[in-house]
Specification:
alpha/beta, 8 strands
Length: about 280
Amino acid sequence: MRRPELLLLAPLCVIASWIAVQAHEVSVHAVSREHAALAAEPQEPPATARERSPSTVRAVASRPRANETSAGEEAAPGLVRPSREPAPVRDLSEIRRRLMQNEAGTYIGDILAARDSNIARWPDRTSRPLRVWIQPTDTAHDWNPANVPQVRDAFTTWQAAGSPVPFTFVTDSASADVHVAWVDHFEEQISGKTMWARDENWWIVDANIAIALHHNHGSPLDTSAVRAIALHEIGHLLGLDHSADTTNIMTARVRVRDLSEADKATMRLVYALPPGSVREAMR
């Protein structure tokens, strides 16, 4: 090869090398950006079968506002307990008819959404009142004996609203079906908690209530707040879940002091239906 040709080839080699380096850098940068985009994109969690257990305890994190009671949460023991209650009669067309005829003015939809379309309720007990024991006193330094009649009044208020589950009050805790106990306060931002269990047919077979004497931050609950909390927790005991409407006693943060018409209508509809799933009837 002649010398002029060698002189011309050298710059061409340099240019070719520079182009190769730039192409490599562009490729590396493109891969880096792709990895960064994949890392920044939120990954969808793996699909799992959604299952709601009665043992679920829903915690409320927000602090109550003025004139608002941090009502407790409904909970149930993890075990589904056996019972001697007969299986309910399930007529899908009748369930559908009752839902369509009576759902207006209720929050039955909120309950079915929270329970995966299941109704939980006590068997009709018109001839067998639930025996309720209310803890008669407490060791808290600011214990108010007036709390006890406030809770008793909350039970009779639900009964007067048309509940087919009557209550009677007993002084012997060992003979009671339902126990209401006092706690100084809850560590969570709640003021009450209801524990209930069901059998395989969704009949409620056992329930207990705990009510706080103080807010989580230490201030005492007055008697009107105790009654409101009791109304809310007894609603859970009867099988109601939370309502999205803050004018109802069954809202997660209680802002009212008595039952609404929707509270009463929802309770009556729950007890007009058999326990268990209504999904088939809603199709």
